[in-house]
Specification:
Layout: E1 2-6, E2 11-15, E3 19-25, E4 31-38, E5 90-94, E6 104-112, E7 126-134, E8 137-144, E9 149-158, E10 163-172, E11 177-186, E12 192-204, E13 210-215, E14 223-228, E15 232-238, E16 247-254, E17 265-271, E18 276-282, E19 288-294, E20 301-303, E21 308-310, E22 313-319, H1 322-337, E23 351-353, H2 355-358, H3 364-376, E24 381-384, H4 412-422, E25 426-431, E26 435-436, H5 441-445, E27 465-466, H6 472-488, E28 493-496, H7 518-536, E29 541-544, H8 554-557, E30 562-564, H9 571-581, E31 590-595, H10 608-615, E32 619-623, H11 631-653, E33 655-660, E34 667-673, E35 679-686, E36 697-698, E37 708-711, E38 716-719, H12 720-725, E39 728-729, E40 750-760
Parallel strand pairs: 23-24, 23-32, 24-25, 25-28, 28-29, 29-30, 30-31, 31-32
Antiparallel strand pairs: 1-2, 2-3, 3-4, 5-12, 6-9, 7-8, 9-10, 10-11, 11-21, 11-22, 12-19, 12-20, 13-14, 13-16, 15-18, 16-17, 17-22, 18-19, 26-27, 33-34, 34-35, 35-40, 36-39, 37-38, 37-40
Helix pairs in contact: 6-7, 9-10
The chain binds (2R,3S,4R,5S)-2-(hydroxymethyl)piperidine-3,4,5-triol.
Length: 762
């Protein structure tokens, strides 16, 4: 890995074993983009890639020279108004009303390692080091690792506005990844206002791509959609105050011939949990400009002397091994260099959550009844969901009042926790700290803590309103309440929910000029509360949640290493949701629970086996009243829990391959393989039974071609090369036969887990 600056040609080349990123200082001292992709040789000069040529009717920078037009130059961080007619990376409004700028190169530094960002989540460079061995237990710690990454900071200065720009690039030794972010600094007395400040802009030399996005809505989050790039703008975004279920802060550009397992793809992901824009603009010369960052709508940020603004971090992943290759890189990076803390590398506890079991209707004895039964089945953690606080018996009251409801829990949270601990289980709690109901003590005391615009209607969502987390005093007030609850009982898990989009955003505590900062400052407030709670309670495992998966984004993973993937717990629906989510996010981050049938979202009936077989591929748990199950169903759960405990490490931290897409047909399949390629689990799911069906095989991935594997279900020893080149035979033994009754292998919604164990390695 290296970052090289070629003095003579003024060219930067960032490279590691797999990728190269090249840009240069242009004739006008701004920055021009030359290449991002597979590793190429380093050399002094790549200027031929600029392809400067005169084009009719273009605005040119230098009199007498018709070759240098910003409209036709691929750039690093472009502005509008000086020749480039495409969407800019940033806009700065100056005191005289002008938005013209000219940021020219003024220097750069290259450092080992990767500096942290001010108040923002970001990837980091570090290494796991053994510090001691105590009673044969190895104790590890993480130390910052200088050799794992290198960071380039390029400084640019606009002499008229007095603004300084710092473009920051990090390249990692072991990941085909470049991370980028931008810092604006105002160093002189003049005031400026940032109206657009994207984290990344990348000009690619052609448009022969398909754009992949993750799109959906509540309960159908992160469906995979692909569209061919066309001239003009194609974008995904959120203006809801959270990253949203509707679009994820991610796009990928893949070549038309790229498949799951081969071909080029570039993935772009934003480490941010608020409003975002991810856009591919193709100009009529077929240049593709990708920008990703905070959505400029409702964003403006004044900078006075001494002020600075830092954008969130954007991550660019290059894969030559198709979409699975891209996902492997995201999974590894986000699992090991974004998620932090005690739980980062740990197998996640198997939990039972009472939400779909009781909703708001519970008391201490009901909870203990479920917990006792769960313990007998081997479940490790009980999570008490919504309804334990204030006077909350439905969704109309009490958000903001984070003290226990003694009518439901006469011994308090700590009393309940003690009894659950006595059973030998851990205890977890649900909170929704960013919200308030009018029907609450907090609203009576602090109506001004709510985000709302003076003299305007205040829209509610699920009867609740949004607290002004742009204010430190509000965040601190909520922190104090939560600290009381968490210190009262040893809580080992917290589910942090957030159940509405933001509207009529306006802070009572901010000046008119500051109102454009509020949506971003709100997210910074959310991050600050997480940071404070993590610092005070480092052992708690946080799971983020927003009406299910409305805030499943990399920003959240920095604080909460797992996220409730969706409120839709139907096994068939979950195939699409988990498949799409896996494009970017690792299995260890995907909360996946077995729930009751008929399913509460769809009224669909699927077998307990099918529900388990889908939920295994995630942070596994249960969400139903297990006390109402038949004895034989409890036995099945016991077996599922035992299976999950045995294979949890593989399922949560193994290499995951998507094999067959739920968006393309009747069969979904995926698999995980361990590092040593000795054990693999294949999940196979067939939605509708077909009569007299054809034969089916699924080509596996990631195995060792020379290892022979014992394959359960088929009960056969088969070589890796056969399984990967011929495929795993998955034809239904039963298809076409006449069945008198369902026997567990026929009918709709079938699934199987194939276990592959290497029996010999030659
Ligand atoms: C939405 C979450 O996604 C659910 O799991 C549950 O916690 C409810 N909120 C509780 O109100």
């Amino acid at each position: 890995m290296a970052i090289i600056y070629h003095e003579k040609s003024q060219t930067f080349h960032l490279f590691n074993a797999e990728i190269s990123y090249v840009f240069t200082i242009l004739q006008n001292h701004q920055l021009g983009q030359l290449y991002f992709g597979k590793r190429i040789h380093d050399r002094e000069d790549f200027a031929y890639l600029l392809e400067l040529k005169a084009r009719p009717m273009s605005a040119c920078a230098f009199e007498g020279d018709r070759n240098f037009s910003l409209e036709h130059i691929k750039q690093e961080y472009p502005s509008y108004g000086t020749g480039d007619m495409r969407y800019p990376a940033f806009t700065i409004l100056q005191e005289n009303g002008s938005r013209i700028s000219d940021f020219v190169y003024s220097g750069h530094t290259i450092k080992n390692g990767k500096p942290a960002l001010d108040w923002l989540p970001a990837t980091y460079a570090e290494e796991c080091v053994l510090i001691s061995t105590c009673n044969r237990t190895e104790v590890y710690t993480y130390v910052e690792q200088e050799n794992e990454a290198e960071t380039l900071e390029v400084y640019l200065q606009d002499s008229v506005s007095g603004t300084k720009l710092i473009l920051r690039y990090t390249i990692f030794k072991d990941f085909p990844v470049i991370t980028r972010n931008v810092r604006f600094e105002q160093n002189v007395d003049t005031k400026v206002c940032l109206e657009r400040a994207m984290s990344l802009s990348l000009d690619l030399p052609d448009m022969n791509y398909e754009m992949i996005e993750l799109t959906g809505a509540w309960s159908r989050e992160r469906y995979v959609e692909t569209r061919k790039l066309a001239h003009g703008i194609q974008a995904v975004y959120s203006m809801r105050g959270c990253s949203s279920a509707n679009y994820n802060p991610f796009i990928a550009l893949k070549r038309p011939e790229t498949t799951e397992n081969s071909g080029e793809v570039i993935g772009f992901s934003l480490i941010y949990s608020g409003n975002f824009l991810a856009q591919a603009e193709v100009d009529t010369y077929n240049i593709t400009r990708v920008t990703i960052g905070i959505h400029p709508e409702n964003f403006s940020w004044q900078l006075e002397k001494g002020d600075s603004f830092e954008t969130p971090e954007a991550v660019m992943v290059y894969s030559k091994d198709g979409l699975n290759g891209m996902s492997h890189i995201f999974h590894r990076l986000y699992q090991s260099r974004l998620a932090r803390g005690k739980w980062r590398d740990l197998e996640r506890p198997i939990l039972i959550n009472n939400w779909e079991a009781t909703y708001f209707d519970f008391n201490e004895s009901k909870i203990l009844e479920i917990a006792e039964c769960a313990k007998q089945l081997g479940i490790e953690l009980f999570v008490l969901d919504d309804g334990w606080f204030g006077k909350r018996n439905d969704d109309t009251s009490s958000l903001g009042d984070w003290y226990v409801n003694l009518e439901k829990l006469p011994n308090g949270v700590s009393g309940l926790e003690k009894q659950i601990e006595k059973l030998g289980m851990k205890f977890g709690l649900w909170i929704e700290p960013e919200m308030i109901n009018k029907e609450s003590k907090l609203y009576k005391e602090h109506a001004d803590w709510v985000l709302n615009t003076p003299n305007r209607n205040m829209s509610h969502g699920r009867n609740q309103f949004v607290l002004d987390f742009s204010r430190e005093d509000v965040v601190d007030g909520i922190y104090d309440q939560l600290e009381n609850v968490f210190q009262d009982a040893p809580i080992s898990y917290v589910k942090w929910d957030m159940n509405r989009s933001m509207t009529e955003v306006y802070s009572q505590a901010a000046s008119p000029e500051e109102q454009g900062t509020i949506m971003h400052k709100y997210i910074l407030g959310v991050y600050r509360l997480y940071e404070k709670l993590i610092a005070r309670f480092p052992d708690i495992l946080f799971e983020s949640c927003a009406s299910g998966g409305s805030r499943f984004d990399p920003g959240m993973l920095y604080y909460a290493p797992q996220c409730w993937t969706s409120d839709d717990t139907d096994a068939v629906e979950r195939l699409k949701i988990q498949y799409g989510t896996s494009m970017v996010y690792p299995l260890s981050s995907m909360g996946a629970h077995v729930s009751a049938v008929p399913n509460h979202q769809l009224l669909r009936n699927t077998s307990l086996a099918m529900r388990g077989n889908v939920a295994y591929f995630g942070a596994f748990g249960y969400e139903l009243d297990i006390t109402k199950l038949k004895e034989e169903e409890k036995e099945v759960i016991k077996e599922q829990v035992a299976f999950m405990k045995q294979y949890r490490k593989l399922l949560q931290y193994g290499t995951f391959y998507r094999l067959s897409s739920p968006f393309e047909g009747n069969v979904t399949a995926w698999m995980v393989v361990d590092k040593e390629q000795k054990t693999a689990l294949v999940g196979y799911y067939r939605i509708l039974q077909r009569v007299n069906d054809a034969y089916h095989r699924i080509k596996l991935q990631g195995l060792n071609k020379d290892y022979c594997y014992y394959v359960t279900v088929l009960e056969e020893d088969i070589y890796g090369d056969e399984l990967m080149n011929i495929g795993l035979v998955v034809s239904d033994a039963s298809s076409g036969e006449n069945h008198e009754k369902y026997d567990g292998t026929n009918g709709d919604f079938q699934s199987r887990i194939y276990k592959l164990t290497a029996v010999c390695d030659e």
